[in-house]
Amino acid sequence: MKTAKISNPSIVLQLSGLTKKIGGKAIVDGLSFDIAKGEVVGLLGPNGAGKTTTMRMIVGLIGMTDGDVHICGQSIRTNFEQAIRHVGGIIENPEFYPYMTGYDNLKQYQRMTEGVTDARIEEVTKLVGMQDALDKRVKAYSLGMRQRLGIAQALLHEPKLLILDEPTNGLDPAGIKEMREYLKRIAEAEGIAILVSSHLLSEIELMCSRVIVIQEGKYVTARSLGETESPKQKIISISLQVGDAAHAQAVIEGMEGIEVVSVTASRMTIQIQHEKIPGLVAGLATQGVEIYRIEEVRETLEDEFMKLTGGNRIA
Ligand SMILES: Nc1ncnc2c1ncn2[C@@H]1O[C@H](COP(=O)(O)OP(=O)(O)OP(=O)(O)O)[C@@H](O)[C@H]1O
């Protein structure tokens, strides 16, 4: 297969037609996407979708059948050593010496890794908020603290790409919230790209700026998360809470280009072009309709995922 060469220097990770076949079956099937510097991207899919297999190929734990992975412009097929030095990752649970302190574990890693300074140890432990727990033995750490120490260790050699497979597995809601905060902090402070997998949409939505959905090894969709402006011409769903919905409906039915989808006593959902909303509000107010609330009804990623995959839920 012909593989694309990176032209944009801000692209840290590029997958092109990445494929893994085992026993003739494609576990990962022609996966292509890019991740840029500073992005925290979620790899989302149901159990068995191929997330771990994809990540294992990116970090070189297993070989690929076809396609390629470029990290900072270097192909892991042809320049593995140069490519892989830009990667830090946790694919399986991070291994530590339980009877040693967190600090001694990081010092041990420093001895085995070229170019890691004491200042860097201090820097990464601050980034993951571990500076006060470093003199405790790892066996006394909670799961969340081990995860943080693992991430600190993965950052020691100043990678440009951080790969985390299901990092929130087993964490409580407070731990998940903390992780979300320090992943964002790391991406910003270090200017690196982070790829994080999960089978839980709710976690990905909170942690990531973009999500890539895969199912049965194939790319399904990608979506930027967070608020986006609606284009003027776009038809959107609006929910209205009014004093008298029957009255509002009668007024709206006299207006052009607005479709009433559902009505209850005080609520209604309509479809309308974005640019017609001010006219709608003015028209209703002129006719004496009391408006208490007006908001867009957004299709969630989960709704979209359900449509695309015919009801196979993400989680
Ligand atoms: N070495 C292997 N031999 C045979 N099948 C495998 C092998 N490794 C993975 N698979 C299969 O490939 C599919 C994808 O597995 P993978 O672990 O990548 O999925 P996943 O999205 O990470 O799922 P999970 O969230 O459950 O970890 C699964 O059906 C799995 O059983």
UniProtKB/TrEMBL annotation:
Which residues belong to any copy of the ABC transporter domain? 13-241
> What are the recorded GO MF terms, alphabetically?
ATP binding
What SMART domains is this protein classified in? AAA
Q: Can the keyword Signal be found in this entry's annotation?
A: no
* Listed Gene3D superfamilies: P-loop containing nucleotide triphosphate hydrolases (3.40.50.300)
* Pfam families hit by this protein: ABC_tran
| Keywords, sorted A to Z | ATP-binding, Nucleotide-binding, Transport
Which family does the UniProt entry place this protein in? Answer: Belongs to the ABC transporter superfamily.
| Protein name as it appears in the record | ABC transporter ATP-binding protein
User: What species was this sequence derived from?
Assistant: Paenibacillus glycanilyticus
